[in-house]
Every structure is written in structure tokens, then in C-alpha cells.
Amino acid sequence: MDDRRLKIAYLTSTDARNRHAWSGTQFSIWNALQKHVGDIELIHSVKPFFPLLIGKIATGLSQKLLHKRYNYRHSKMLAKGYARIVNKRLKENSYDLIVVPATSAFIPYLKTALPIAYIGDSTVKSSMNYHRALSNMLAFSSTETIATERLAFNRANFLIFSSEWAANSAINDFKINPDKVFVAPFGPNMETSTLPPGELALSKRKGTDCRLFFIGVNWIDKGGSIAFDAMVELNNMGIDTQLTVCGCVPPAEFNHPKLNIIPFLDKNNEEQRRKLDEIYLHTDFVILPTRFEAFGVVFSEASAFGIPSIATDTGGVSSAVINGENGFLLPYSATGKDYAKLIAEIFKDDDTYYSLAKESRNLFETRLNWDNWAKIFKEAYRKTISEAEQLPV
Q1: CA 383 to chain centre
Q2: What's the rounded Cα separation, in Å, for the pair 64 and 296?
């Protein structure tokens, strides 16, 4: 890829400027592309009214009458609705590249000769009967969902996924040419200027009490009960342990004097962002026994603060948490006692703990950051588009 800045059409179904959309990942990708790759025009909040309305009604009726899910988000009807709107918008300006994060249904019916890059953290095939939104589906909806994404993947010039798990699904489940599939881990969904310098991240020392941080919007999906059990077990083992929960409110039965609950912190609010930073700076471990995870940006954030992560080996987590470097992964079947045993072993061994903290920060600086993500994006563009354009006819 030459040094010329590309003119990029950035397609999103939500407002990419909204830092809550896709947990802030759309905003972070936009910033990384704008900083390193080209000038972006947002074609956002694309919402075909009638396909969405019909799709939502069909989904509601299907669940109520048939107790099955209809996945309208990957329906042929919605994909064509997206295309009708986007095709008109693309004609209004000239671009070098189309970038589509997360919503593969944008791509199948676009009428354009422009190269297309798709960015995702999973595939529909990898998520079927794994994520609840793609579980218990009508047979024809499953078929349609896979067909829509297959069209998108084949149509895109290159695909960038945040994990090997998702990339392997594109290659193996959809038979996509490996030469156009790339892995680029996501960085923290925080402003770079607000992240602590390495000296600060690594200057904190663990105290006599063990401070666990659980962050997620869904207590059940993120394995909250396992994290709670781990905290209780650690206290039973004689290790004074606190668990801070942020992003959700556990059910009433999860009650303990060492449990601290913060229902929500808005990273867009300066005061609340500082509070989140303060929690990270006083955390010994991020614990996330997640039941479903495509990647886990929280692990990139934990690494930026020099915090080891203890999580489930599921989905794409192994591309964010590397055993023995920025934390450890436990089997899906692991219990709170299993998590507690591992955490206790690490917490009691200063050499092991501080080595993990140092390597966590190092992994952030070398791999789990948006500058590195953009570097991989540029390399993918160069290999799949720039070099192809330079081949003799």
C-alpha cells in the first residue's frame, strides 16, 4: 500500500459516533482508520424501514407461535433493503474503499466495483447454538443466515477478524480463500490519551487483599455467578477478597459484604471514565468466566493497565488472553472453586503475579492496541488490493 490516504466509505447500521454501539468498537475502528489509513465518510444509521419492520414482526410471531427464532438481521429481504439505500449513497461521492464493520448483510447486493473490507469478531456459523440470538432458529432462517453471510464473505475483497476462532470459521465453514482472511486483535475501547503510561500501570502494588474486577452488561452471559463463587471461596481460603461488578446488577441472591456493585459507568462522561480508570488502577485481576465471547475488549483494557485476566477458554478469548502472558484461561466447565484456586496460587507468588502484570502491559503495547490493528489492516489492503491492481493485465 502506498502512502496515499484512501477515501473510505464506512457503512454502519448504527451511528458510528455513538461509543456505546458494539461496545465502542465501531468508534475505535473509525478512529484507527482515520488516523492511519484514510479520510472517512460515515454512511451510518442505515435502517430500511419496511424490511426492519417486517423482520421484527416476523421474529416476534415466530417466537410466540413456534418458539423458534427468525434471524431477520441476515435475511435476504434486509440485505436488499440495505443495498437500496447504500447504493444511492455511494453514487453521491467517489471512494477508494468500502469498510463494513460487524454487519455482513450490507455487502451481498451492493452494486459497486469498489473494493470492500469486512471487519468482524465472529461468523454466524461460529455463533449458531452458541450465542442466544443465533440459537433455536427456524431451519429456513438458519439456511438463509448462512447463505447471506457466505455471499458477503465471497463478495468482500478481504476479511479482518479479531480472533483466530472467527478467522478459522470463515476459512473452514465458508470455504473462504485463506489469503484474504486476516486476524487483527482489537485494542481497548478507550481514548489512547486516557490510558495510563506504562510506568504508572506497572507501579501499582498488590495489597494484602485481593481485588477482583468483573465487567459486563449481562450477569448470566458473562458468568457472574462463577465469579461470585470464586470470591466467596477465596475468602473462605483466608484470602481477603473483594469483587467489584460493573455494567450490570446481579440477582438479589448474590449478596456479600465483599461485593461492590456499580450498575453502569459511561466512558463518554469524564467523571465516570475517571472512576473506571481508578477501579482498573486498584484491581489485581480481571475475572470473566464468560459463557459466550467473540473476543473480549475488556482483556485489552486490562492489559493496558497491567492487570492479568482470568477467563474462560471459549470463542475468541484465546486471541485476547494468552496463557502465561497476560493471564490464564480455564475450561468452560471450570467452577468458582477452580477460579479461586488459580487466583490464590498467582496472588501468593509475587514473582508470578508481577511477571504477568509486566507481560500484560507488554502485550498491550505490542499487540492489543489499535495502532497494531491499523497496521494489519493496511497490510491486508496491500496484499489483496494494491498488489492485485499492479499485476500486468
Answers
A1: 25
A2: 32
Q: What is the pLDDT averaged over residues 318-347?
A: 98
Neighbours of 87 (CB within 10 A): 13
Identical fold between 6-187+369-390 and 192-366: yes
Alpha carbons 183 and 161: distance in angstroms, whole number:
5
**What are the two backbone dihedrals, phi and then psi, of residue 58, each rounded to the nearest 5 degrees?**
-65, -40
Class of the CATH domain delimited by 192-366: alpha beta
The strand pairing partners of 118, in sequence order, are 100, 159
Cell numbers given for 273: 471514565
Give CATH for domain 6-187+369-390. 3.40.50.2000
Query: Which SS3 state, helix, strand or coil, does residue 304 take?
Result: helix
Show Cβ contacts of residue 335 under 8 Å, excluding neighbours closer than 6 positions.
226, 229
Helix (H, G, I), strand (E, B) or coil at 261: strand
* 220 φψ region: left (φ > 0), alpha (ψ -120 to 50), beta (else): alpha
Give the sheet arrangement for strand 158-161, strand by strand.
38-43, 6-11, 97-101, 116-120, 158-161, 181-183
**Residue 72 DSSP code:** G
Q: For 195-227, how does the pLDDT look when each residue is reduced to its tens digit (9 = 90+)?
A: 999 999 999 888 889 999 999 999 999 999 999
Give the Cα separation of 132 and 127 in Å (integer): 9
> Which pLDDT tens digit goes with each residue over 362-393?
999 999 999 999 999 999 999 999 776 654 43
Residue 321 corresponds to which amino acid?
V
Residue 315 C-alpha cell reads as 470463542
Domain spans in the chain, listed from the N-terminal domain onward: 6-187+369-390, 192-366
Which residues are 10's β-sheet partners? 42, 99
Of 271, 294, 335, 356, nearest in space to 131 by CA: 294
How many CA atoms within 13 Å lie on the side-chain side of 121? 21
